[in-house]
Structure formats: C-alpha cells, structure tokens
Amino acid sequence: MRSVxxxxxxxxxxxxxxxxxxxxxxxxxxxxxxxxxxxxxxxxGQQTDYYDSKLKRAIPKVDWMSTKxxxxxxxxxxxxxVGDEQNxxxxxxxxxxxxxxxxxxxxxxxMYGCPWDEETGDVDGFDExxxxxxxxxxxxxxxxxxxxxxxxxxxxxxNWNKDKAYLEGKKQYRAQICIEWLKKYxxxxxxxxxxxxxxxxxxxxxxxxxxxxxxxxxxxxRGIIISWMKNGQDHHEDVELGELVPNVDGTFQKSSTLRVTxxxxxKNQYSCVVEHQGETxxxxxIRTNGGESVPIGIIVGALVAVVLLIVIGAAGxxxxxxxxxxxxxxxxxxxxxxxxxx
Length: 342
What we know:
Pfam families: C1-set, MHC_I. The chain is of the alpha+beta class and 342 residues long.
C-alpha cells in the first residue's frame, strides 16, 4: 500500500538582499477528511494567506496582511481561489489518466513565483508542476518555454509552448506584476520581514553510540550556515545537513548531524559553528533534558526532541513526496497564473 508523507514544502535559501513571493497550490485525491485543494502564499518564507476546499474562503495568516488589505481584497482572492480549485480538480484527473491511475492517493501541485534582489535589482521567475512527488513540467523562463522529462507530460508541453500569448503572459507576470506585488507586501510587513533574530544553538545526542545533532532554531531571516570543526579545522566527513524548516512564530530552524564513534569523540575536539547575519556562534557542549551542560566528549542525558518536519495539515501546506525529485518553488498574486489545464 502506498504511504502518504505530508511534509513542509521546500523553501529556497536566499541571502538577506533577495526577497521572494511564492504560491503553492495542491490538489489531492484519495485522502479521507483532507481538503481536495489547498493554496497559500509566502513572502520571504513567511505564510501570508491560506485557502482550502473545506474553508471556501481566502484568509490572512499574518497581522500585516489583515490590516493592510480589506474585505474587497479577500473577496477577490476567494473568487480566484475558487476558480483555481475547479481547474486543479480537472488537472489531477487528467494527470491520473496520463499515468493510467484510477484509485489510490494522488497529489498534483504547482509552485510559482518570483525572486527580487534588492541590491542589484535583478528579477527572475519560476513555475513548476509536480505529480505524486515528482517533476511533471517546468517553465524555462529564459527561453520562454515549458520543459519536461516525463513522457506523460509531452502533450501538455506541446500545447502550452505553441500558445505564444500564454507564454508572454507568464513572462509579463513574473517580470513585472509579481515583482510589484512582492514589493508591496514587503512594505506591508517591513517591521516583521526585515527583523533580525539570532539562533538558539544546541548539541543533542541520544546515547554514546548515537550521532550528535547541532540544532539551530528561532532565527530570522532564514539564511544560515551550519558547519563542523575537528581540532580547530573544518570538518566535512560524515555530516548530514538537514532541511530549513519554518517555526510557527515565523522564525526558522535547521540542523546538521555528525556521525562519529564514541572513541573519536574522546580522542578529538569537535564543535559546531553557526553563522547568521554576520554573527558566529560556536557550540561545544551537549545540552540534556535537565538543562545541564556537559563536555561534548561525554555522552549523557536523554534525547532532546528536534522537530524538523512539522505537519500542519489544514492550517498549513503539504507536499506528497514519493522521492526526492520534486523541488517546489514559485509565486504571483492575481491568481490568473494557475488556470492552465494539463
């Protein structure tokens, strides 16, 4: 039986000068008591609005969106999302037929949007579609064409690429309209989006034979570098870097795990180095559940939970991820972008 994994959608790491507007649309089938359609917007990794097929209305998710935009805006957003919902119900059925699928759990997604470099003025855009956690078709904005490696998406590729007006609309939206909305939202949420919050860093371990996790949380903006040092030198072996994950308060968390034997801990001095907004923190001690600190070479205490994957369900956003193939990203605000049929 196919399992369902609901994960936070990936968010692209950017430096502080690069801002992004992203939209995520998800159609599902075969998941009991779960919305058949979900949409949400994000500015610089912070969720700004939400709609689903059960709620049937678009709502703000941050104070600065609810205070800056009135009922007319949210009614307009609701009407657009209702249309998107109908289109995506058609899209997931078409995708299922292309892959000769009938029953079971399936997910069809679109991620679109635009980044803007505040320092250089450079702009870009993206539009990606996925089915059951794998790439389906993607916009090549530079060459103004859709590309795919899936045989099942070739019909869509041909139809969209021969519609020049449709492609020009995509280009105009991402190069101009999307950027204008992004700048407007940045003004709305300036106090929140341009704040700087330093990370809290902890070293966590379950038992003497377990790997050690360097966990940074509560930081904003999202750009962060986590690295390891061994005896004062950069260390890259047996290191696994985790995904960047949003916290419910709008800050972020990230971890890096180092796998070495207990004997290696005793013979060497290891430390975790976290760099954020020009500030560097170095952690050498493991923190236990009781709040104690002990040298990193001594393994004591129980496992401190590190929540790296947060299932939000109807209050957040989801990605059905069968493999590591489908990497979401994208944005826009007038809703006209997501109307295409596959």
